[in-house]
Amino acid sequence: RTLPSGHDGGLALTGVAELLATLHEQHRHLPSRSEWLKMLGRAGIDHWAEGYSMCSSARPDLHAYPCALWLLFHTMLAHSTQAHAMQTIYAIVSYVDVFFGCADCAGHFGNLP
Fold this sequence. Notes:
This protein is an all-alpha fold. It is built from five helices and no strands. It folds into two domains: 1-48, no CATH class; 52-113, Up-down Bundle (Four Helix Bundle (Hemerythrin (Met), subunit A)).
């Protein structure tokens, strides 16, 4: 419900679904790196961008992860249907509250209107 499926016609979402199905079929430990790369290739997700400059920073230890995280959240909300928008927002707020490493930042985010 929250993954984008626009410009690529849903191919990325289909590839992710194939990966998930493969993992469920295996019912075992996580795949090794080589197994994972083969699974990505079979799902058609084997070509990654050479570089990613959207969240580059002079201080990547402070900025890269939060920037990429906010971009992910924006993408999830931008592609969420109106019927699922609040569910997406609650999932994002819950994720930040539980998993974000900066407690002050998570508290500030949770208090935004």
